[in-house]
């Protein structure tokens, strides 16, 4: 369903994603784990057509996003790491705009919006502007929105970041149900190892832009002789803390990004 | 078509819901109209140029449209910072449609602002010829589209607000002050005249002035031609730069 073949993304000297390959089967929940700055978000951006790979190939439901960009985009929904709602619009308007962009016919669109808002317990907030929503409600709305066009794949980039345990639990219950009932393929990243352990069928661990291990949670634990996934993760990626964007080169990159244009 | 419409509608909704912004953006033109208009009025009349409000009103309307439309375009930076840009860029529609929808939305907002200022001008003593109002609206629309496209083009290459002040001081302000919005372009020193001649707003204000008061410097045909061509160029350039955005 999702394939990456020798995917590489470089920024000047830095290899943010360094020759990674994986294959996610239909109906699978695939967790992509790694420390900060390991290349998770860069990989998701390449998989979701937001970033062109330096080299390598991506396949989304058998389509190459480089040549069939819009068809590929219709196949997936995405919940980004940080907010992507229009705060001035209401929950319904955000959903409606999404439906229009994805060419969901008006009648079906309204039905699905009602259904999804109910499912994610936002029905009573339908006509409230998003700027009044709490972090958890915004997240739920984003997930609801990403499902509006009935995608085959859903990408979740740290969807539970900053949420309380109640909301996190509920969110994963929803995701699991979607996966079981509608056979939606799920590609997720998270920093909470126990979440990945609980929901993911298969896990890949990425560090310094390379995949260092891949397999089921049990396989990873066995491979590292660890009791928990967190221990396995630390054994594979080391326990030093990663500094993101603190060196001179990164500062320069940020400066250059300000006046992007090229690239 | 749906894409263009829904993004146009979004710009309009955002505009209507931010009432403080509507009021704030009307303050400046009002100040120009009252301060400059009534302040310089007697001098202008003594110099034999007639009623200054009558001359200044089209300039102030042009200024309102310029500021509002550049800002509408630059709003793209907000979308980038607050994340909504991602939602648009990952959607399965050609980016050019997104750009057109946004631009038309921003231009509509700018026209509404311009029209409100026109009404304020009339209240302040401006007497336009009503027969030429359709032509006036056409010029207002052209100015609005031209500068919204320019704003979008600029916002596509800036990724945060650091560059915004720069754009205001070195682009928008000169465009306004050199355009002949505040003074007649006949008899100005040749350097200023030359600068005004390459300033697209000069043609916009001149066309608007022609439509509303019958006074023109370049001639309505030249105004129309220049505005249309420059607007088309900015749309194409803006579309290309917008197309190149990567996150």
Write a brief caption for the model.
The complex is a heterodimer of chains A (263) and B (247). By secondary structure, chain A is α/β, with parallel strands linked by helices. Chain A is built from 10 helices and 9 strands.
What features would you describe in this structure?
The complex is a heterodimer of chains A (263) and B (247). Chain A is α/β, with parallel strands linked by helices. In chain A, 40% of the residues lie in helices and 22% in strands. Chain A has helices spanning 40-47, 69-75, 91-101, 106-119, 135-146, 165-182, 193-199, 217-224, 229-237, 248-258, and strands spanning 2-11, 14-24, 29-33, 55-60, 76-79, 153-157, 185-189, 202-207, 210-215. In chain A, the strands form two sheets. A six-stranded mixed beta sheet of chain A has the order 5-6-7-3-8-9, with helices on both faces. Chain A has a three-stranded antiparallel beta sheet with strand order 2-1-4, with helices on one face. With 247 residues, chain B is mostly helical. Chain B has one domain (2-243). Chain B is built from eleven helices and no strands. In chain B, helix 3 (52-74) packs parallel to helix 7 (133-157), helix 3 (52-74) packs across helix 10 and helix 10 (200-213) crosses helix 11 (220-243). The longest helix of chain B has 29 residues, at 95-123. In chain B, 48% of the residues are buried. The interface between A and B is medium-sized, with 36 and 33 residues.
Fraction in helix of chain A: 25-40%
Mean of the pLDDT scores of chain B?
91
Give the number of helices of chain B.
11
List unreliable stretches of 5+ residues of chain B.
none
Mean pLDDT of chain A: 88
Distance between the termini of chain A: 28 Å
CATH-defined superfamily of chain A? P-loop containing nucleotide triphosphate hydrolases
* Number of domain units of chain A: 1
- Helix-strand sequence of chain B: HHHHHHHHHHH
């Amino acid at each position: 369903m999702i394939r990456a073949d020798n995917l590489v993304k470089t920024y000047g000297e830095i290899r943010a994603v360094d020759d990674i390959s994986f294959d996610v089967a239909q109906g699978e929940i695939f967790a992509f784990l790694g420390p900060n700055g390991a290349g998770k978000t860069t990989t998701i951006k390449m998989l979701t057509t937001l970033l062109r790979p330096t080299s390598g190939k991506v396949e989304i439901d058998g389509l190459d996003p480089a040549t069939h960009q819009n068809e590929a985009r219709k196949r997936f929904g995405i919940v980004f790491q940080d907010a992507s709602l229009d705060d001035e619009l209401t929950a319904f308007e955000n959903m409606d705009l999404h439906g229009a962009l994805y060419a969901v016919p008006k009648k079906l669109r309204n039905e699905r919006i009602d259904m999804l808002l109910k499912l994610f317990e936002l029905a009573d907030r339908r006509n409230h502007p998003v700027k009044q929503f709490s972090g958890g409600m915004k997240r739920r709305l984003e997930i609801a929105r990403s499902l509006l066009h009935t995608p085959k794949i859903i990408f979740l980039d740290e969807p539970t970041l900053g949420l309380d345990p109640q909301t996190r639990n509920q969110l994963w219950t929803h995701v699991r149900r979607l996966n079981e009932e509608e056979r939606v393929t799920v590609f997720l990243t998270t920093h909470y190892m126990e979440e990945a352990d609980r929901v993911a069928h298969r896990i890949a661990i990425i560090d310094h832009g390379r995949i260092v291990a891949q397999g089921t949670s049990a396989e990873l634990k066995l491979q590292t002789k660890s009791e928990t996934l967190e221990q396995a993760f630390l054994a594979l990626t080391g326990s030093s803390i990663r500094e993101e964007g603190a060196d001179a080169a990164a500062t320069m990159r940020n400066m250059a990004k300000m006046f992007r244009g090229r690239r | 078509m749906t894409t263009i419409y829904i993004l146009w509608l979004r710009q309009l909704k955002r505009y209507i819901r931010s009432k403080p912004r509507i009021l704030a953006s009307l303050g400046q033109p009002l100040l120009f109209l009252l301060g400059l208009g009534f302040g310089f009025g007697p001098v202008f009349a003594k110099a034999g140029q007639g009623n200054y409000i009558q001359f200044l009103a089209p300039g102030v309307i042009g200024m309102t449209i310029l500021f509002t439309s550049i800002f509408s375009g630059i709003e793209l930076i907000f979308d980038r910072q607050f994340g909504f840009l991602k939602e648009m860029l990952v959607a399965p529609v050609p980016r050019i449609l997104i750009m057109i929808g946004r631009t038309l939305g921003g231009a509509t907002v700018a026209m509404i602002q311009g029209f409100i200022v026109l009404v304020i001008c009339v209240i302040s003593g401006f007497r336009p010829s009503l027969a030429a109002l359709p032509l006036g609206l056409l010029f207002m629309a052209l100015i609005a589209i031209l500068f919204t496209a320019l704003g979008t083009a600029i916002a596509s290459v800036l990724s945060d607000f650091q560059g915004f002040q720069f754009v205001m001081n070195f682009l928008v302000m000169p465009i306004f002050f050199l355009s002949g919005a505040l003074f007649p372009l006949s008899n100005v020193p040749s350097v200023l005249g030359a600068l005004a001649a390459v300033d697209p707003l000069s043609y916009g204000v001149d066309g608007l002035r022609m439509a509303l008061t019958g006074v023109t410097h370049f001639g309505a045909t030249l105004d129309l031609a220049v505005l249309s061509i420059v607007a088309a160029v900015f749309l194409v350039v803006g579309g290309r730069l917008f197309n190149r955005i990567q996150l």
